[in-house]
Design goal:
Layout: H1 3-9, H2 43-47, H3 57-71, H4 81-102, H5 104-114, H6 131-146, H7 151-182, H8 188-216
Helix pairs in contact: 3-4, 4-5, 5-8, 6-7, 6-8, 7-8
Length: 217
């Protein structure tokens, strides 16, 4: 059976090996054969967890281990060529789902994608809530770049780094709290607020990287 044919039967069709009915899971529940994932399978269905902004981290971890054990390429190196070929792609999909769902920022970005939206990668506009912090830190970094041997200035920048790092953590905690409120909601207002919060986190993380780079110099 070709990969294209397998793609058509996975997710509501038949297992290529035992012909049992299969859903959106990465492996056949009857014979444990790896399955090419349906185009309808999102990261949540790949790991068999509810489609929601809020996930049970321990459950995601457990489902990932279970799925990985069934579809890992090492398990299918010897045997049917179809299983060996499918396991490579399906194992990669399982890992992508795990990396996305376990991380709140990646999960938030994916939630936007599922609802036809995305976070602009080239948005350099300073979020209003961070403006004063960003400008203050950038001034310190400019001074440090001009006088890298100024010990007092370096200490000030190290203090600023701690403040920026704490801002990142506080934004992440707030994001998780908002996830609990939004849960399965995907209204325009919620998606817009989600984008704003993700943009803030991305910007503060970039600022933190700039601080680290300046201190390393």
């Amino acid at each position: 059976m070709t990969v294209q044919a397998q793609d058509r039967v996975a997710g509501g069709g038949e297992c290529w090996r035992c012909h049992a009915r299969v859903g959106l899971s990465p492996a056949c529940e009857t014979c444990r054969a790896p399955l090419m994932l349906s185009r309808e399978a999102d990261h949540f269905s790949v790991l068999g967890v509810p489609r929601s902004l809020v996930v049970d981290g321990a459950e995601v971890e457990r489902r990932w281990h279970d799925a990985s054990r069934l579809v890992h390429p090492d398990r299918h190196q010897i045997g049917e060529a179809t299983a060996a070929r499918i396991s490579i792609e399906t194992s990669a999909a399982v890992n992508r789902a795990y990396r996305t769902l376990r991380d709140p920022v990646a999960r938030g970005r994916y939630w936007l994608e599922l609802h036809g939206d995305s976070l602009a990668e080239n948005n350099h506009r300073v979020p209003p809530a961070l403006a004063s912090l960003v400008f203050e830190v950038q001034e310190q970094l400019d001074d440090l770049r001009r006088t890298p041997d100024d010990a007092a200035l370096r200490r000030d920048v190290e203090v600023a780094r701690a403040n920026v790092a704490e801002r990142v953590e506080s934004r992440l905690r707030e994001l998780e709290r908002r996830f609990a409120e939004w849960a399965d909601v995907a209204t325009r207002a919620v998606l817009a607020e989600l984008k704003d919060r993700l943009a803030e986190i991305a910007y503060v993380r970039t600022l933190l990287a700039d601080v680290d780079e300046a201190l390393e110099r």
